[in-house]
Amino acid sequence: MTTITAFSTLINQDLACVSAREAITHILNYPRLRQLKRYTQWEFTFGNLTLPEAESAVTTIFTKTFFLINPNKENYALRLPANLPKSSGPQIAISVRPKSPVNWSAMCTKIKSKTSIEVSSIASSTVWVMDLNPGELSEEALREELTERVILAGSVKQGILVNPVSEQFEWLETRATGTYAVA
Amino acid sequence: MYSDKIAVIQFPGSNCEYETQRAIAHYGLACDIVRWNTAADTLRQYGGFVLPGGFSYQDRIRSGAIAARLPILEVLFEANEAGKPILGICNGCQILCETGLVPQSQDHYSHSIEVALTHNEILGQRVGFKCEWTYVKVARPEQSLFTRYFEANEAIPIPINHGEGRFVLSENAAQMLNHVALFQYCDSQAQSTAASNPNGTTANIAGLANRRGNVFAIMPHPERAAFIKQIPDWLQSNWAQTKSTRLTAGETNGPWEKLFVAMRDHVLEAKVPA
Questions:
Q1: Which pLDDT does position A177 carry in this prediction?
Q2: Closest by Cα among B198, B217, B200, B216 to B144
Q3: Do B100 and A156 contact (CB within 8 A), yes or no?
Q4: Is B111 in Cβ contact with A156 (below 8 Å)?
Q5: How, if at all, do strands B48-51 and B5-10 pair?
Q6: Which residues contact B97 (CB under 8 A, 6 or more apart)?
């Protein structure tokens, strides 16, 4: 089994991100957020490919099928998100996915019929990368504050990025560690 | 001071406000389309509110997520406390779910989100945007001012038009299901089955009320079945079979007359304080 993680993002202005940032800073009045970026994280599993073959397969899926991304409008990168916010402050990332897993088997069949590439499984999630001004807060305190005020929409007054009734989130390792795998 | 006017709230991205206004006005209730940034004092004068369908803020983050956090919602929270009728259709339904106005499992409105509307999905497989005619039936019609004129187990034709219409319930909301009025997808014989569930929604739910019955969130579009002329001839429904006779007789009212008339009667008779 070979697993490849890839990240896609819009080439032009991501309006969902603009609105999310506006809502967080001006409606929820959260002052620490400097920048926000959104990516789709993809995880492809292949049964019988080597790592270079699997990376090449993902490139083909992205550029030739148009099933998962539109390469005219979206960039993609393997392992790490492209064009991360440039900042000296900490960046905290979360990965959001539905509580009930999505079945991608029909998509795997479609990809096989178009490209002959056999994908064992696909998973996707939305990644939000938050560039923050933490002030005096430790990373743990910052995560706690983010969970309550920005991430979990437990109430209409607090949080927006994750609807806890239907979605769940995981922290991703921060940028300093050089990877965005699940922490 | 009482108001017998309804405000249809136009958010950036709403696209059903004019047909909603036409349906409300046809059934005898004065109705204005008001923008999302209208002054709160102006909005407070209305006797009820309708949140129409569309794509407020392009469904950014999640459908209804941004609109639900706008200052105008404070006026709706006050209206809810005052018992004024609040109806959310399609995107309006998504907004009401994001505010926690339905089903309000607690005695007092807590702003807690108890219901999510997420991607149409059957057995884990995304089924995309749905644009088709369905049937719904009402459970416990007496529990909401909007459904009180319907009969239980009557199959009512109605179109759906959404990509995120699958109700997912929190534990608290699930416990409320037997206590609030519901619309549930069914077939033309009023049987709720997996086959009559167009989007994988929990318990075939198409819409639900709050526990007091003054707020109703419905994903299908009653304003698109408010007039008999809107009913397609091929539907397996008495409404389609009698359409030409009714039209010849000069009738105009469609299957969702009861919802709009119920709202009108509540506003005109109860005279909710403005």
A1: 39
A2: B216
A3: yes
A4: yes
A5: parallel
A6: B64, B88, B113, B115, B116, B117, B167, B217
- In this structure, what CATH number is given to the domain that contains residue B187? 3.40.50.880
B73 touches chain A (CB under 8 A): yes
Q: Is B221 a catalytic residue?
A: yes
Compute the distance between CA of residue B119 and CA of residue B101 in angstroms, rounded to an integer.
Answer: 21
Please give the full DSSP string across B192-236, using - where no structure is assigned.
Answer: --STT-SS--GGGEEEEE-TTSSEEEESS-GGGGSBGGGS-TTSS
Give which of A145, A146, A158 is closest to B99, Cα–Cα. Answer: A158
pLDDT digits (tens, 9 = 90+) for A154-176: 888 899 999 999 999 999 975 54
Substitution target in A156, A158, A168, A169 with the highest count of B β-carbons within 10 Å is A156
The DSSP symbol for B54 reads B
Domain count within chain B: 1
In this complex, is the C-beta atom of A148 within 8 Å of any C-beta atom belonging to chain B? no
Identity at B188, one-letter amino acid code:
S
Which value does ipTM take for this structure?
0.90
* Number of domains observed in the structure of chain A: 1
- Expressed as residue numbers, the domain containing B110 is 5-270
